[in-house]
Amino acid sequence: MLFNSLDFLIFFLSVVFIYYISPHKSRWVVLLISSIIFYMAYNPIFILLILFCIFINWIYAIKIYRYAKKSKKNSKKYLIIAILINFSVLFIFKYLNFINTTIVSFINLFGFKLQVPNINIFLPLGISFYTFQGVSYIIDVYRNKYKPEPSFLKFALFKVFFPPLIAGPIERADNLMPQLFSKKEFNMKYISLGMKYILLGFFKKIVIADRLSDIVTVVYNNPKNFTGFSLILATLLFGVQIYCDFSGYTDIAIGCSKILGINLTENFKKPYLSKSIKEFWRRWHISLSTWFRDYLYIPLGGNRVAKSRLYFNIFITFLVSGLWHGANWTFIIWGMLHGIYQIIGDISYKTRNGILTNLKLKNTLISNIGSTITTFLLVSFAWIFFRANTISDAFYISKHLFSDVNMWFNRTYIYNCFLSMNINFYEFRALLLCILILFIVDIISKDTDIHILLNKKPLIFRYVFYYILLFLVMTLGVYYNAGKFIYFQF
Amino acid sequence: MPVNSSTSNFKKSLIKSNLIIIIKLLIFLMLFLPSITYVGNKYKYASSLNKINDANQKRFTYFYKQPKNSIDLVFLGSSHSYCSFDPAIFDYELNVNSFQMGMPLQHPDNSYYTLLEVLNYQRPKTIVLEFYWDLLSDDFELKQTEMLLKVLKNDKLKEDMVKNLFPLNEKVKYDIPVIRYQKDYLEYKNKEIKNKIQEKINYKIPPVKGAEFITDKGFIFSDFVIPEESYDKKNQFNNYDVKGWKFSDVQKKYIYKIIELAKQYDIKLYFVTAPIANVSLEKIPDYEIIHNQISDFLKENNVKYLDFNVPEIHNKLFKNENFRDDAHLNYSGSTIASKYLANWIKEDKN
Fold first, then answer.
1. What integer is the mean pLDDT of B182-194?
2. Considering only alpha carbons, which residue of chain B is nearest residue A192?
3. Min CA distance, B171 vs chain A (Å)?
4. How far is CA A98 from the centre of its chain?
5. DSSP 8-class letter at A326
6. Is residue A134 within 8 Å of A148, Cβ to Cβ?
7. Structural domain for B248, as ranges
8. Which residues touch B230 (CB under 8 Å, ≥6 apart)?
9. Whether residue A200 is found in the same domain as residue A177
């Protein structure tokens, strides 16, 4: 049941209706049942797995809390067992085949001819998200941040609440839990705000991301058929696609939750306007970045350590972040690249700063634009590894980005490149216009929320803005063979 | 009671603000709907100008011109049918009057409705239904269904098609012109822009070696030869996932319906899979898995089936030069396939 499907629309409208006509006390039950139905719509059998994970986290959180005062040692023991169980489930379903093939390929390098069959395991939807949510919960209970939830069913709702279930934001208990059970009135303000989030989400997803998807897929599925211009264009467009796809999902999840009177964590803050990689990670997939900060980077020592150790901590954090995204070397290299970017950024900070000061360019518009573009290009280069189907494809693309640079001003050549990518010129022109609109919206609302910003403006501004969005969604949205959300695979 | 009165005041103001927002939303939608209706009509108009389905339209025009009950043999199926089986050869070999009713991407569900339309005008004694396995795994294919809806004369049949074939999701989209005709509009505008760019940059379209046209019996003549880049680099069967192939239950249901319909009208029914290029078949070493699934299903239903991709037949009959691309025969290939199939039918009837 994709957000961009009629099935979901019918499902969601029914949930909202039943939710608001139910008495306050039983509304959480409506949410629990509907969330289970939502998850089972994808693959019913995996509900057993998620229930198992919920049970483990629930029971161990209680144990950890009980022993916290009596015996810290026992409490820690239960914490470790719970973490191991959570990650074992993730390991079996997500990484077993990867480790298996990696080890076998490594052994075969020495002349052996081992053949270990791949185990056919389906990846349960949202497993990386709900595993991380569960782990953060038990660690927070261990750290005495909050008391464990005594009711299994209420805890289950925290874990399966459907809008962020499949692709986040990864919610922490202190934000989500109280909201799930608090009293809420039927308030059109929330509903209208939620609808606005959903509309912007759809604009990003079905107007921009799904249209870009076709172009990017053609090139990335057969990169050897294309030359530098096409490879660069597809790579830059993928950067836009993944942003619109993922932040579009988040907007829809936030919007749906708002309609139900629940505020989710912000997950994106206009990441492509960042002036450094460090800032990019404060603005991109915030709930995951903060998870890694709180539960990996800081426990490793954070930044209050010697430089060499700091760089090690950064590198490990990004390497694991890459691995979190997928069981493939492409993701690992993508993570490592971001780690390396940050380390180089830190090492070169003083030199770069000095040069800018000497040139009297520090904090000027030119230097800001320069930093933003450089950051975007670095991030885009790393996306090659994220998007490529295989590691050899990724290296091929990286190597051939400028293979035809001497032809870039030949109009016939560029026209042929567009033809070979199956680009519909009218569609492409409309796409560029939509990307421009989104870019302007992002600039205007860089450090705030566009909907809140518009609420302070006269009614006509809001009408025009949402009119344009709805118009573009209706007239240019991809409604046939619409794509799944990219982050569903994680 | 101050607490009660403040609660009731809060509720009153909430109701008031809710009403205001609902009114604002309604005004917004009232302003929005006319513009979307206007664009829908614009898209619809562009769709009527599109000539993508030109050959298909001609096929049906020729078909409707045939004298009533004059056709003995009808071919149904996808582009593989109208590229592989030339009615002229069957007319000569079997001494019949045959007609090709294949359509791009025709799935069995659409073959069923095409057959119903055929039966409104003709009483064929034999039907050859071509199966392209890749299409058998779809539950529904809108593009093809729309193509058929555009050329059918029978309104009742069209209504039945929309009612029975379209999943709810698709039905809703189909009823909204701005969504339904969007692709046609984009395609139409794309052509306009392409022409302008070509003019501006003085673009010379590379000359095409060969010819292609539709015969008055619905067959597509083509003497193109598979380009070398389709041997490997651009071959559509690169990394073809045989294990991921699944025989759709929806399509199975319509195959049963075709079998029943054939029985009801006393029509001899043959199923056939047309050949794909040798270079393509080499890319699907596990093709047997697909063949066996289709073959077993048809055996259960006592229908004769000929698969040109089985190595014993394919290797004996075809070379890469007999194909116009990686999956379709050219005229030289279609002559071979048509003669072989005509003899196979002749033998079966004898």
1. 91
2. B21
3. 10
4. 22
5. -
6. no
7. 54-165+206-349
8. B277, B279, B325, B326
9. no
Of A191, A415, A475, the CB nearest to B203: A415
Element (H, E) at B220: strand B220-222
A427 and B190 in contact (C-beta within 8 Å)? yes
For residues A56 and A96, state if they share a domain: yes
Q: DSSP H helical segments within A359-485, as ranges?
A: 365-387, 391-400, 411-420, 425-444, 450-455, 459-476
Cα–Cα distance measured from residue B201 to residue A246, given in angstroms and rounded to the nearest whole number: 38
B172 contact residues in A (CB cutoff 8 A):
6
Residue A69 maps to a domain: yes
Given an 8 Å threshold on Cβ–Cβ distance, is B233 in contact with A470? Answer: no
The verdict on A176 and A225 lying in the same domain is no
Domain boundary among A115, A148, A183: A183
> What is the spatial distance between Cα A130 and Cα A151, in angstroms, rounded to a whole number?
19
Mean local confidence (pLDDT), A8-14: 93
Within this chain, do residues A285 and A398 fall inside the same structural domain, yes or no?
A: yes
* Averaged pLDDT of chain B: 90
pLDDT digits (tens, 9 = 90+) for B306-329: 999 999 999 999 999 999 999 999
Full residue range of the structural domain in which residue A383 is found: 190-489
In-domain check, residue A462: yes
Residue B18 has pLDDT above 70, yes or no: yes
- The residue type found at B87 is P
CA distance A380 to A356: 24
Q: Is B207 helix (H, G, I), strand (E, B) or coil?
A: coil
Name the percent of chain A lying above pLDDT 90. Answer: 68
The Cβ-side half-sphere exposure at B38, using a 13 Å CA radius, reads 6
User: What CATH number is associated with residue B68?
Assistant: 3.40.50.1110
Catalytic residues of A: 325
Q: How far apart are CA A151 and CA B338, in angstroms?
A: 72
Helices B142-151 and B108-121, packing angle to 10 deg: 10
Pick the closest to residue A209 from A170, A238, A252, A180 (CA basis).
A238
CB of A470 within 8 Å of a chain B CB? The answer is yes
Residues on chain A touching B183 (C-beta within 8 angstroms): 480
pLDDT digits (tens, 9 = 90+) for A134-166: 999 999 999 989 899 999 999 999 999 999 988
How many domains does chain B fold into? 1
Query: Among A430, A438, A440, A439, which Cα is nearest to A476's?
Result: A430
Query: Across all residues in chain A, what is the average pLDDT?
Result: 91
Q: Is the pLDDT of residue B206 over 80?
A: no
d(CA B221, CA B129): 19
Instruction: Report yes or no on A131 lying in a domain.
Output: yes
Please give the backbone phi and psi of residue A118, each rounded to the nearest 5 degrees, phi first: -70, 135
Are residues A310 and A449 located together in one domain of the fold? Answer: yes
A480 contacts B183? CB cut-off 8 A: yes
Q: Is the same domain home to A173 and A294?
A: no
Q: Which residue from B17, B169, B234 is facing A7, i.e. has the nearest CB?
A: B169
Pair (A200, A236) in one structural domain:
yes
* Chain A residue with Cα closest to B39: A475
Cβ–Cβ < 8 Å for B107, B138: yes
Evaluate whether residue B87 is within a structural domain: yes
In a shared domain, residues A175 and A195: no
Question: Residue-wise over B115-132: b if at least 16 C-beta within 10 A, else e?
Answer: bbbbeebbebebbbbbbb
Classify strands B212-214 and B220-222 as parallel, antiparallel or unpaired. antiparallel
Please check the confidence at residue B230 and state whether its pLDDT lies above 70: yes
Number of domains in chain A: 2
pTM listed for this prediction: 0.85
Asked if residue A16 belongs to a domain, the reply is no
Instruction: Determine the distance in angstroms separating the CA of B167 from the nearest CA of chain A, rounded to an integer.
Output: 11
Residues of B with Cβ-Cβ distance to A424 under 8 angstroms = 186-187, 190
Q: Measured between beta carbons, which residues in chain B are less than 8 angstroms from residue A5?
A: 169
Cβ of residue A467 closer than 8 Å to a chain B Cβ: yes
Report the residue of chain B nearest A416, measured CA to CA.
Answer: B203
